[in-house]
Design brief:
This protein is mainly α. Helix content is about 75%, strand content about 0%. It is built from 13 helices and no strands. The longest helix has 26 residues, at about 25-50.
């Protein structure tokens, strides 16, 4: 059974020593784990960015504020593990609140300052992947019964995510993810679910989140299969289908044909 703040009562010196020795995380092991996780995250990020930067992009255009916010979710992610393993829940809550908010700020600032780029989208994709997988671990650590109860939903969500990640690699020869309306809305739900997990049992919320994730990833797969490599900020399958139908309808109109004839 995991200890929680306030669960350890003072006793004699031997008992206190036993409790200290039972601490599952030492500073050295945390340091090694943090370095390993950070190195792996940054390696994946840089590897992915190499495939999208053509041929050279000035460093000042890469290290923009939105991109730095995305990168911060990777660099400081080991801190969340440290605070959780040390059961410093107040620091974990505060750090998660700040890091989780960067997932919304980076995209908002990139659009506002006209700094949307393929590099930024790649950074955001990799940061999200590590961050949301970590959230699954955090929920398991704090509420293992929620993961056990939702294990089938969890397997379905990760299976759908794996397919949505592999299919564009097969079709387009590169990683490719979409920020559809369903997935973006569900990201907000995940963020608040993690925060509320300190107040309530998140089992029911986790079920809803996982089901919505499955729907979102399946929609993403259908978009890839039918429409190919679309814009990563495509809102939904239905909106994209409607746009294509209107585009074909407009092009097929006689008026449009006469307009093209006059231009020629």
């Amino acid at each position: 059974m995991r200890r929680r703040p306030g669960s350890c009562h003072t006793g004699d010196q031997a008992q206190s020593g036993d409790l200290i020795n039972m601490d599952p995380v030492s500073p050295l092991s945390f340091y090694n784990t943090s370095i390993r996780l950070t190195y792996e995250a940054l390696s994946c990020t840089l590897t992915l960015c190499i495939h999208v930067i053509k041929p050279r992009v000035p460093m000042q255009k890469v290290l923009t504020i939105p991109n730095s916010l995305s990168l911060s979710r990777l660099v400081f992610l080991p801190l969340l593990y440290f605070f959780l393993w040390r059961e410093q829940f107040l620091l974990f809550f505060a750090s998660f609140s700040v890091l989780g908010s960067t997932d919304f700020l980076d995209g908002y600032l990139a659009r506002k300052w006209n700094q949307v780029s393929r590099v930024g989208k790649a950074l955001d994709t990799v940061a999200d992947m590590f961050f949301y997988i970590s959230i699954a671990y955090f929920i398991h650590y704090l509420h293992p019964q929620a993961i056990v109860w939702n294990r089938f939903f969890l397997m379905a969500a990760f299976g759908a995510y794996a397919l949505s990640f592999l299919i564009p690699i097969i079709l387009f020869k590169r990683p490719y993810t979409l920020h559809t309306r369903i997935l973006r809305s569900n990201a907000v739900m995940v963020y608040f679910m993690m925060l509320f997990s300190f107040l309530i049992n998140p089992t029911a919320l986790l079920s809803i989140v996982l089901i919505v994730f499955v729907i979102g990833f399946i929609e993403e797969i259908f978009i890839f299969l039918r429409f190919g490599a679309v814009d990563q900020d495509t809102s939904s399958y239905f909106v994209l289908s409607l746009e294509r139908k209107l585009e074909h309808w407009f092009i097929d109109r006689p008026v449009f044909g006469r307009m093209n004839a006059k231009r020629k």
